[in-house]
Amino acid sequence: MRRLTDRLWQNYGQKLFLTATLPFIAAAVVIAVFATLQSRHLADREIAALESQLIHAKREELKNYLAMARTSFINIYGRAAPDDEAAKLAVTQILSSMLYGQDGYFFVFDYDGNNLVAPRHTDLIGRNWSGLADPEGVPVTDELIRLAKQGSGYHSYEWVKPSTGKPAQIVTYVIGLQDWRWAVGTGVFIDDVLATVAAARADVEERVRRSFLFIGGFALVALLVVFTSGLFITIRERRLANAKLKRLTQRVFDAQEEERGRVARELHDGISQLLVGVRYALDMARRRLVAGDDRAADHLDKGITHLAGAIQEVRRISRDLRPGTLDDLGLGPALKALTEDFSKRSGITAEFATVVFRNRLDPEAKIALYRIAQEALTNIERHASASRVTIDLRGHRRGGTMRISDDGLGIEAARARTGLSPGLGLRNMQERIDQLDGTLRILSSSAGTVIEATVPLSHMLPPEDDSHETKVNA
């Protein structure tokens, strides 16, 4: 009988242990995988943007170099006949002498594939290189000639780097001198760009690995605690476990916010300054060229305009990742700016109203409400087919409430029309508001959707008496 009792007690303890541990293990694995995938997805997207911006800067640099080279021989070329050998010789001598940096030079191929200028690769001069390809099989000479015949263009392939004597990835820009049937170009090696991107990717992978191991270690420690105290689990201990899981989820969100802030600083302090520097270089080149060819100056003016747009785009990305107004001025001004940007971008009429908070929300509440507003506006723009959106933010005796309403076709109708299954957007909203012990209400019908997020008074400083209402049409 005693053996039977002990056996039943062991079975009960095992069942209790499995009941307590299996959901915890599943939740920890889901959170770890979700956090890893989200971090890697965000990092991959930002690294891709970083690589694109760096290569764009390199391309603009090549355009600038070739514009300066063209200015140096345009007078000779403009006055020469198609068969003027003396003029051709003079231009080849000019281009052969124009070297820059350790690896920079200008090259010339005629449309038959013969190399005429290659000061850092003299073994190419005077020989026909039709059909030349790089080690990966990418055509070189034929593609450069094809782009030159079309007027101009970029081409990327592997080429021997003069300073190292080893193959490296290069981006070239080529233009065509149609009267002489010449392809004139220059290139810049992007191995430094690729190294920067590779280092950033390796750093991201290391951080993701550490985060995964941290979550796994935390889960293992919690599992051991549950194992040793599994027979004595009570309702109070279950509540403590829920609190631990909530803190773990908050850590995941905090890590995401920290990563967004870091990437934003890198984009702003790195790429923005680089593009500004290129813009100043182009502007200086324009001033020098004004005295010569006016068309070149117009071309450089256009380049400056494009670079200014790129700088503005970098700043926009930085602001979207972590708006400065959220920390400096509070949630109200940040939501106002978000509403105005949304209206300009989507063409949907947006209205923002608030009772001034005077920055009295704590950081967790500000971030959560701002991200909920971002997610809601994104869903409205993509799926709701709405013509008007209203965001209302105000404080009251129970805390603070943000209400977002639109006149779209509703959540169910949008899902039926697009065929999309419920995504993570609404789930993320609910999880963010749960971390604040707040409430999230979603009311949707064919007349529109209303999302109402409320944070408790514990996340606000005591309200002031002189608050007043402001209303802004975006």
Automatic annotation (TrEMBL):
GO terms for cellular component: plasma membrane. Residues 369-459 form the Histidine kinase domain. Its main location: membrane. InterPro entries: HATPase_C_sf (IPR036890), HATPase_dom (IPR003594), His_kinase_dom (IPR005467), sCache_2 (IPR033480), Sensor_HK_TwoCompSys (IPR050482), Sig_transdc_His_kin_sub3_dim/P (IPR011712), Sig_transdc_His_kinase_MctS (IPR017171). It comes from the Bacteria. It is found in: Cell membrane. The chain crosses the membrane at residues 16-37, 211-235. It is a multi-pass membrane protein. Pfam families: HATPase_c, HisKA_3, sCache_2. GO terms for molecular function: phosphorelay sensor kinase activity; protein dimerization activity. Keywords: Cell membrane, Kinase, Membrane, Transferase, Transmembrane, Transmembrane helix, Two-component regulatory system. The keyword Kinase applies. This is Histidine kinase.
